[in-house]
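Re: beginner question about structure tokens

> Can someone show what the tokenized structure looks like for a real chain? I only ever see the sequence side.

Sure, here's an example I had lying around. Input first:
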Amino acid sequence: MHRSRTMLDKTRIPHLGRIQRAELIESNTCPKMTMTPDASNEIFFHTPGRHANAYPYKILVAGRTRFSHSDGFVTRRFHHHTLIYTLSGLGLIEVSGNNVTAGPQTITWLDTSMQYAHGCHPEASHWHYLWMSIEGYGLDAVFSFLRVANNPLFAAIGEVSAGSFERAIDNLDRRGQTTDAISSTIVAQLVETLVAERGEHHSSEDRGERVLRVMREVRTEIASNWRIEELAAISSLSASQLHRQFKEKTGTTPMDWIRHERMNLAKRLLTEPGAKIATVALACGYADPYHFSRDFRRIAGQSPSEFRRAQGQ
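And the corresponding structure tokens:
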């Protein structure tokens, strides 16, 4: 990366009149760059010290960002790798012609030498995330090996990932003699986490586990208004990859599987004494009883009332 290059704050550019610029200055100082008084929006730049090349990885800039719809959609291209950890809300990222939905507790890895765009997902109220831009030995090779360009979304592993990002930000904020060493250690740990999450699991068993992860999550909240983007975020796959792998494992699509799961639940609830069709419909994710009855007839071959009578209710 060319450190003398002027950088745009790529995380908060609502429109041209509000573009905020921050320059990465080659000096021995490392000021804290705060975008707004809101602590949820901060950038910390770092100029590596003279011994930084002794370490394999560097964190050049890191920060916290909270996007809303008023902040618009940002299109940028740089020359380093960027890791994004989503804390809450949903982000929409466009890269290499693919749309990726970044949900809570996921890590998105971007090679910003490829043009990308990102912002708050249209169906979310906000997108709150931590991020860092990094460089170092072998990152391009790992990026290629893990096929990140095809699927930049990773499932974060517990609180380890969030803690690593917070530690990286705090490390740049407190800048001292050990900053470069700590930064290199943090990046190495994150790379290890990402490789463990994907690099050792290209088998069909791993694909099956991702599908099972989606099934478990849906079954715990069967009445939720699930979107394919949310399911893809749970599986750490793109929507098209999830659709393909889900069909390989189950013979049907994710949304069709959800409909059948809801009907299986409906059949159990309809056999309970005094159960009302409208109440059963709501418990199965249908606000409209007519829509529920139509889907029930299509899948079960009879109406909810006919099914209940056949069961002696």
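Each token stands for a local structural state, so reading them left to right follows the chain. Residues 1-37, 201-205 have pLDDT under 50 and may be disordered.
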